[in-house]
Amino acid sequence: MKLSEAVSIITGVALEEIVLLRHKNSRIKQIQEYKGSIDDYSLVQPKFDEKYNFRNFKALCVVIFDKVDSIFLIDGVEKEGISWDLVASGNVQMDKENNRPPRQSIKYKAYKLSNIPIYGLKVNGWAEAAISPVAKKGHVLFDKLTIDVPDGVILKKSIAIIHKSELEQDEYAEMLESIKSEEKRNDVARVIGITTHFVRNQAIVEKRIFLAGGICELCGNNTDVEDVKLPYSLEVHHIIPLSGGGPDELSNTVALCPNCHRRIHQQNRPEDVKKLIDKRQM
Fold first, then answer.
1. Tens digit of pLDDT for each residue in 74-91?
2. Which residues lie across from 81 on neighbouring strands?
3. Is residue 190 within a helix (H) or strand (E), and if so which, with residue range?
4. Which long-range CB contacts under 8 A does 274-282 form with residues at least 24 apart?
5. In this model, does residue 214 exceed pLDDT 90?
6. Per-residue confidence at 159, pLDDT binned at 50, 70, 90?
7. What is the mean pLDDT of the chain?
8. Cα–Cα nearest to 133, from 48, 46, 62, 72
9. Whole-angstrom Cα distance, residue 94 to residue 224?
């Protein structure tokens, strides 16, 4: 399947408004070494380089290590200024290491979609071509890049994660109605291969993260801090695992920071499980 078409289905954005962006492996390794932000590296772009002009685009798909890493919904310009003032300190260190001076740049305002089924899939055709880090409609690579979507995985439009404070009241109500209609389906699809994979109801995932408001429900830390330039996020955990017969319902889910989610799966401490069950019974 064409990567551009998959992004269009998931975002609901027309092909003409999609940008595909591939980062060099060496640059990503440097960002990781300096504890920088890959999101900043993707969303802060040179102001006067037309190739990196995303002003008239609504969706950005980022490819790292030749796999789909993230998809953003672009919502215009957030800030303009000198690049080093717009990115994490680790990104600045990387620029200095590569003798790359600061430049006039744009930071695009964007919402990162979570739990997307094509994340981690190999992108075919870019590494072999290696002719451009950016592909837009009309570019030779745009229609040639493909991904192999596993059998049984159905792509559908994702519900963007939007904070209530950013919505008008009628827009907020409309979004909740959309989520409710999706929840009624309550379909936990099973894709049978070498192992059984549970494809979760995306509406429930998005609603749980939305309701958490950036707060981890186990440790209570706020993962949605504007002045922290690192890729924080919440992940949805099923209190009773789907593999153990637990329902794919909102009442069986909690939103956790990555550290707590990892701790639950690795240690499964009774006091943590009890705390999460008590939260859902409140």
1. 989 999 999 999 999 999
2. 105
3. strand 189-192
4. 275/218, 276/217, 276/218, 276/237, 276/239, 277/239, 279/217, 279/254, 280/239, 280/251, 280/252, 280/254
5. no
6. low
7. 81
8. 62
9. 25
The conformation of residue 205, written as its DSSP 8-state character, comes to: H
H/E element holding 9? helix 3-11
Helix crossing, 270-281 with 258-267: angle to 10°? 120
CA 34 to chain centre: 22
Residue 237 contacts by C-beta under 8 Å, 6 or more apart in sequence?
A: 253, 254, 255, 256, 261, 264, 276
Domain ranges of the chain: 3-147, 164-281
| Residue 12 CA to its chain's centroid (Å) | 15
- Please report where in the chains the tokens 């153990």 appear, as a residue: 244
CA–CA separation, 111 and 30 (whole Å): 24
Average pLDDT over residues 251-259: 88
* Alpha-carbon span 28 to 172, nearest angstrom: 37
Question: Does the predicted TM-score (pTM) go above 0.85?
Answer: no
| Segment holding 244, helix H or strand E | none
Given a cut of 60, whether residue 12 has pLDDT beyond it is: yes
- Contact between 280 and 239 under an 8 Å Cβ cutoff? The reply is yes
Is there a contact between 200 and 248 (Cβ–Cβ < 8 Å)?
A: yes
